[in-house]
Every structure is written in C-alpha cells, then in structure tokens.
Amino acid sequence: MKIARAYRGVSKPSSELSKQEEPHDLLVHLDLRGRLIEAHPAFLSRGGRNIELAPGYPLGYYLDAPSQQALNGCLANIRDGQTPESQINLRFNGGKLYAASISLCQEPGQERVVTLTFHPLVPEADPEKPTSIHSLPAIQSGPDQDDYSQMLERHAAQLTLLNRIGQELFLTIDLGEILSSAVQRLQSNFGYFHVAIYVPDAIDGRPVMEAKAGTITAQFPPRHSYQPGQGLVGWVFQHRETVLVDDVSLDPRCINLYPDRIPTRSELVVPIQTGEQFFGALEAISPLEYAFDQNDVSVFETVSRQLALGIENANLYHQVSIRLQQQERAQALMRLQRDLLAGLSANHDFNEVLNVVLDTLTHIEGIDSGSIYLVDETGGLDMVTHKGLTPAFASVVSYLPPEANKTQFVLQGHAGYMRYADLPFDPRIPADVRSHENLLSLAVLPILHQFRVIANLTLGSHTRLDFPPDARDVLESVAAQLGPTIARIRAEKALAANQAHSKALLQAIPDTILVIDSTGRLHHIQQSVDSPVSFLTEKYLGKPIQEALPPKDAAVLIEKVKLALSTKQIQMAHFKVFSDEEQHEGFLEIRISPVDEELAIVIIRNGPGPRPAGGETRSPV
Questions:
Q1: Residue 283, SS3 per DSSP
Q2: Which residues 6+ apart lie within 8 Å of 174 measured at CB?
Q3: For a tag site, which of 110, 318, 459, 535 has the least CB within 10 Å?
Q4: What is the pLDDT of residues 595-616, one digit of tens each?
Q5: Cα–Cα distance measured from residue 495 to residue 604, given in angstroms and rounded to the nearest whole number
Q6: Cα distances (Å, whole numbers) of residue 6 to 53, 110, 133, 315, 535
Q7: Of all helices (H) and strands (E), which one includes residue 171?
Q8: 220: three-class secondary structure by DSSP
C-alpha cells in the first residue's frame, strides 16, 4: 500500500540537542507512577532522528508493549515495597534493546524517585532499512545470540497477536463488537496512546468516530466527527491512502479540534478498505513527536485489512439476516391476510367482523391501536369500534363531522401514513388528552364500495414513527376487501329485515305465495289450503324454480320476475294446467310484485276461465 509520508526526516535543531549524539548510557528518573522527571541525555537518537524524552510523560510511551508491561511490573513491586532494585531488558519503539537497572532512591524529606540506568545491548538497525514485524535483519557475527533471540521472540509475539486479532474479527458477526475489539486489542497489546476507528456517516459521509481506546477516550464528545475532507482523517477518507505525520505542527492537513484536552504531536491514519469498497479509517495519535515508525505502519495496515474482511463478513451476515427476517415477516403477513380475508367472507355478523379486523391487524409488529368509522348520511365519520385507545381519547374522536380535517382527507379516497405530531391541531381534542395518548404514527385508509367511500380504517402506533412497506401492502389489501364485506353484511341485514316484514304480509294472504329472486331461486314458499301448485313443497327452498317447473314455464316465470324487478311494476302471467283427478283443464293466474332490487313476490291463484297461456304445466295439481 502506498504511504503518504510527512516530514519523516525532520529533527530537532542542533542547538536543542545534547552533545552526546549516540549515547551508550541513559539515565532516567521517574516518579512511582512511571512519569518522567528528567533524563540524561534528554534526547534519544533513532535512525538519524532525535526523540525528546519529555518530562511529565510516562516512560511507557517510548517503549514497546512487552517493555511497558515489564516496567509496570517492576514499578508495582517498588510501590508495594517488595523489590526496591531489579534488572530487566527494555526496548524503545523501533529502536535499541537496553539492559536497565532499576533502583529506588529517596532523600530525607523528599518524595521517592525511581532511577533507571540503561546500557545498550544490540546496535541500532540500519536507518535506511527499518526493522518491521515482517522483516528482520539477518544475524551478524559478534552480537550476543541471546539478545537477537529476544528480537525474534518479540517479532513472533507481534505476529501471534495480529493473528489472534484477525481470528477474533473474522469470527465476530456484530459490527460494533468488531470495531470495539480491534481498537481495544491494538491499544492494549501494542501500547498506543490512543487508537480510534472512523466510519462514514450514513447521510453525508463525513468521518464519525465509532470506536476508541486509550487514556483520553473520555475527552472526545459522543459521535465525534470531522467535516468531509477536514483533518488527517478527512484527507484519508478522500484519498484512501496511508499517511504518517511525525510532527503535526508542520503539516497543514492536521487539525486538532480540542487542543486543550487532546495532546497530539504525531498521527498515523490508515484506510480500511477491500478492493473498491471503503469502510473507514484506523487512527493512532500520540503526544510525542516521531512516536510511530514503519513497524507501526505494518501493524496498522495488517489490522486494517483484517478489519475490512471482518466488516465485510459482518455486513454480509447482516444482509442475509435482514433478508431472512423480511421473508419471514412477509410470509407471516401473507398468512395473516389470507386468514383474515377468509374469515371475512364467512362471517355475517357486522360488529364481529369489524372487531376481528382490528384484533388481527393490531397483531402486526408496531401496530397497537385502531378504529373503524362508518360514513353517515351527512358525510361525517361515526366510530363503530376501536381498540388500544384510552377511553378519554376514544370519546373525543368518536364522531368527526364533515368539516373535520380527517373526514375531508378520508373522503378523498386515498391512503395516508403520517406522524401524529405532524397533524394539524384539532381543537376538539384537549391538549392533555392528546399528550396522554402519545400516538406516534397513524395509517388512515378509506374503505370504498363501488368507487364510493363508505367507511374508514385507522390504525396507530405508540412505539413506531412509520409503517413498513410490507405492512402497508397488507393494510391496503384488507381495506379494499372490507368495502364489499361491509356492503354485503349491510345488504344481508336489510334483506333480513325486508324478509321479516314481507313474511308477515304474506301470512295474511290466502293464496299460494312464493318469494323468488332474479335467478329463479326460491326464498320462501307459503301454500294455501287448496293450492293449485301443491307440489311446490319446502324441499325446493333455496333451489332454482327450474327444478320444480317444466323448462318452458320456468323460463316464462323468470322473465316476468326480471321484468317486474327492472320496471318496479306488477307483472301478470297465466298458465294452463291439467288435473288428473278431475280430468279437465284449468288456468292459473300469477301476479308478480317487486320487493327490492333482487326479490319479488309471486302470488298464485286459480284463474276464472280460459286465458292466453304463457306455458303449460304438466305437474298434477
């Protein structure tokens, strides 16, 4: 990967340097927490550069991770009074391996001070060929073989850590856990001052800090971010190249938004990407100049590649999970819709149908309330049932007059999905009732029959701000089916009332009476004492008249019924009949009166003498 190197060769002015350019001994004084009090000399020479050992900073900032752990162990023993003196080997980041003698010094009346005396063990590597975790110099004759073995052990430990980080990232399917684990592992195992991961914002793509680890994490505000192209992180987002800045004061791309809280002297940023897919950037900052070298670049680029694969794997898993959830949800909604519509077609009780609709639809995820209104003769909306609403709210919205905003919207015949807070204020609903109900979203669906709005289905949510597309499809399908269902039940109810009224009238008439529809189906049979068509018994109820009369006579009767229904006028017909018992011909007079759009009353009586016959019956009377 291409590295945008910045001011790598800049060093301190010669006037600031110690006279010892290549010291063989280093004397350091620390407090018991490991912070530098003073160092002699004050600068380390590393690869032609001079690194300042700044008072006030922990010595661990300058050491590699294993050395940090060893030093912290010794300081802990000294604080506990166990071991006032010890000998350990310490390595500075990307530099020499030293034998360090550690001892506790305390003058009377003064604070305790820890003194470290360093003696170099291994000569520094060629500055033109920096040592990294992927390339180690060949063993030369002369240096102690044990010292070089320690370099190999350090190299192997780093590879082991990177391999472990890679395995953890690849096996984790939670994106947040992947990012958090990566920065925690990097910071704790390699001793970086601060490590962070930035990801593109979902709206404008600006870098947003998604995970962080280190000693200054609390100094960053929640969702800390840069504007597009701002800072070194913003630069990497645009150019997608690794960049290392040894001294941020010399690079105009570097911007510290919180200089009073976050000390930054050097910065390393590596893009997280695979192929053409960009996921974000991995950043490390340090309060020291020249805190990072090629070894750190190699570590970060290795982890960034592992991160990219882990993120890609988690994204694929997330996408598959979403598709499976969507499929399961769609299948559940289809089953719900199928069962509901099947129940509607078989149910004949008006109130029960409406309650079943609300009970079923409020089982859809996110929908927890609803109501059904009927359009009355004035054009207002009259609530006939509701579920999931507080009594106070249901009471004030139980009737909406024609001039109400919701009524006017419903009568337009279009479905609407809206946030409740966005609706115009309705003075009929007291503010405390509206606030206590705390509805978040509404679905308002018209119920139509023959292109006319006859009712309204309103569903609400106290937990969601919107209705997902698959739920909307189900709601609109149910609303479309409700129109014919409501019209059918209303017609059946009116028919039952008409039939009851007609039956009372028919029972007062002494003639044979039939109730028949336009298709010829018999709905009622009332025989007189001396009926001329006594063969029409109750076994023909619900059956077509064609099964009781000859085809020619049945056709004439049905034609007369249709004519009566269409003209709304009484129709007359005469049929010639033959009696086997009396062996003579007779005539029937038939009077057909329309009841409503579908039903007619047929009155049959014996006729007075020969009449033009519309048809001849061959059934005995």
A1: strand
A2: 314
A3: 110
A4: 888 899 888 887 765 444 444 4
A5: 23
A6: 22, 44, 22, 34, 111
A7: helix 145-171
A8: coil
* Mean pLDDT, range 414-424, rounded to an integer: 89
Residues 90/67, Cβ–Cβ less than 8 Å: yes
DSSP strand pairing (3-6 vs 242-245)? parallel
Give dist(CA 464, CA 444) in Å, integer. 15
Q: Which two tokens stand for residue 437?
A: 């109900």
Q: What stretches of 12-81 adopt beta strand conformation (E)?
A: 26-30, 36-40, 43-46, 49-52
Nearest by Cα to 615 from 565, 551, 563: 551
Within a 13 Å sphere around the CA of 357, how many CA atoms are in the beta-carbon half? Answer: 34
Q: Cβ-count burial of 459 within 10 angstroms (0-12 exposed, 13-18 middle, 19+ buried)?
A: buried
Give Cα 572 distance to the centre of its chain.
Answer: 70
Q: How many helices (H) and strands (E) does the chain have?
A: 11, 25
Strand partners, 385: 372
pTM > 0.85: no
Q: Show the beta-strand stretches assigned E in 440-570.
A: 441-449, 452-461, 512-517, 522-526
- Spatial separation of the C-alpha atoms in residues 94 and 190, rounded to whole Å: 12
347 and 354 Cβ atoms separated by less than 8 Å: no
Q: Write the DSSP symbol of residue 24.
A: S
Q: What is the pLDDT of residue 425?
A: 77
In sequence order, what DSSP letters do the residues of 514-531 get, joined into one string? EEEETT-BEEEEE--TT-
Backbone angles phi, psi at 426, to 5 degrees: -105, 115
At CA 480, angle to CA 477 and CA 481, rounded to 5?
90
Q: Two tokens at 180?
A: 């958090």
User: What does the pLDDT read at residue 182?
Assistant: 83
* Structure-token pair, residue 92: 């500075």
35-39, 62-66, 213-217: least confident range: 62-66
| Greater pLDDT, 418 or 163 | 418
Which one is predicted more confidently, 204 or 586?
204
* Closest among 164, 78, 91 to 125, alpha carbons compared: 91
Alpha carbon of 264 to those of 108, 248, 251, 254: distances in Å? 38, 7, 12, 10
| Cα–Cα dist 602/594, whole Å | 9
Query: pLDDT per residue over 469-488, tens digit each?
Result: 878 888 888 888 788 777 77
pLDDT digits (tens, 9 = 90+) for 291-303: 888 888 888 888 8
